[in-house]
Specification:
With 589 residues, the protein is an alpha+beta fold. It contains 16 helices and 30 strands. The protein has 6 domains: 100 residues, Rossmann fold, CATH 3.40.50; 151 residues, ATP-grasp fold, B domain (D-amino Acid Aminotransferase, Chain A, domain 1); 70 residues, Dna Ligase, domain 1 (2-Layer Sandwich); 121 residues, D-amino Acid Aminotransferase, Chain A, domain 1 (2-Layer Sandwich); 35 residues, no CATH class; 67 residues, OB fold (Dihydrolipoamide Acetyltransferase, E2P) (Beta Barrel), CATH 2.40.50.100. Helix content is 26%, strand content 30%. The protein starts with a strand and ends with a strand.
Length: 589
Amino acid sequence: MFQKVLIANRGEIAIRVARTLKEMGIVSVAVYSEIDRDAPHVREADEAFLIGPAVPSESYLNIPKIIETAKEAGAEGIHPGYGFLAENADMARACDEAGITWIGPPPEAIEAMGSKTRAREIMEKAGVPIVPGSTEVAKDVDDARRQADEAGYPVACKAAGGGGGKGFRVAMTPDDLQEAYEGSSREGEKFFSDPRVYVERYLEDPRHVEVQVLADSHGNVIHLGERDCSLQRRHQKVVEEAPGPHVDEEMRERIGKIATDAAAAVGYRGAGTIEGMQVGDEYFFLEMNTRVQVEHCVTEMVTGIDIVREQIHIAAGEPLSIAQEDVELNGWSIECRINAEAAHKNFAPAPGPIGDSYREPSGPGVRVDSGVEGGSEVTPMYDPMVAKLIVWDVDREKATRRMLRALSEYDSGGLTTLIPFHEAILATEQWARGETCRDLMEDKEWLKTTAPADAAPPQPSEDGGEMLTRDYKVEVGGKLFDVKVIGEAPAGGVAVPAAGGGKKPPKRERKGGAGPSASSDALPSPLQGTILKVAVEQGAEVSEGDLICVIEAMKMENEITAHRSGKVEELPISEGAAVGSGDTLVVIK
């Protein structure tokens, strides 16, 4: 067994791995960028090393620097977590060349399953059902049109090296294909250094069901049941659960065999996930993630198996500690991703500082995997996930109630997060019936109803002064009441103390700025990021809803549309330029 392991990641997954290493008596080594010096994952580890600037390519994606650091630290193994280098075959090979154990699958398996077209081809030959479409990349947009015609519209243009919702664009009709193809290629180049695209049938409302597999170097391949990850925004997951609400024992056995056959077909070793689409009783292979998944926690909660511990044992050459007949699913688990995003603004990224009031829920059946604390800051440099809130109970209904209780306890320290969205979606009849909730996820008007209670902009008083909302605790007859008072802001901005001299209770969600209105000429940026694309020119006539620009922030592309119809009078933005929240993007008169 290893004596020391370096964790080539940051945030909650770095802490998650460090905790298991500590339980196993293995020394953990953290790495951090300059901006992460004071991050919780640095303190959680036994040792920590600086590896470069905040830019991921110069730190968390810097293979030579990470290998050099592992050697300096005397680490015998490297655990990549998920994201960054977790599915990078070059990293796996670099470890082998340096005499360091890669706690992950062989590079050949990463390459085979990392290329989505090659993976589809391998699965098809292995008899695994795949979504109708091409097993080859399109040479150009004309070739993509041919693939689309063969698959049948609507189609999905997908980055060959993609995953995690990146490089996934939908074309509902032939008129949409070129834009979808180009967007997919652009994201593939940016996130995976691979601009190649292939086309497959787009299944409009399938369930996203995946199977967790474990495989050792002794020929043992097992599965740990399924997870349902159907609640997604922009093809990225926001809520996951185990088991699947529409998977019975017969289907579980069938898709479990599909998953283990798929892993065996590529000589897999380690923890991995076979992702698939469930349409009624049918199940199609989608892709394989050759790493531990963000949502592995719900499987751990219903099986009692520490997936990270199994990864480490497998990498050390040991056989699996459990056999397929030992795997039992007990109860129900749900995970909510607590992202720094504003669902009421179409899931716009919302980076920012976290106040000292930050408090995570606890109690029976509640688990929080987080990488932040009061005083931390969520930066635009990395993805928007703050934490994962996981609950367990005996069935789905009780687990839902427990999740709603835990969400109500969560104080995000003033950071805008998905907490109000989660509270809203889990209270719907659609969720109760086990639907995909895709209609709500794509309904911008419904999403606006998930705005935090204190997100409304301040209103002016009759004489033009700013009106503020204050919350107080008032005790009457021995009973405590929450009271909301709306009044004019005090002169000089001095805060008025709560009754009795107590402090004003902290807000769970940061007050959002006023959004653009049709009567306003200027369109402010709803987020901080980089201008990826400018879709209009100065002097052009636009209609409300027309695309103005695309802003990249926190690993996501955000389309910004016109707030009104008119003529573009000012356009103070350019591609590649940085933009701050509130900066003017365009003036339309």
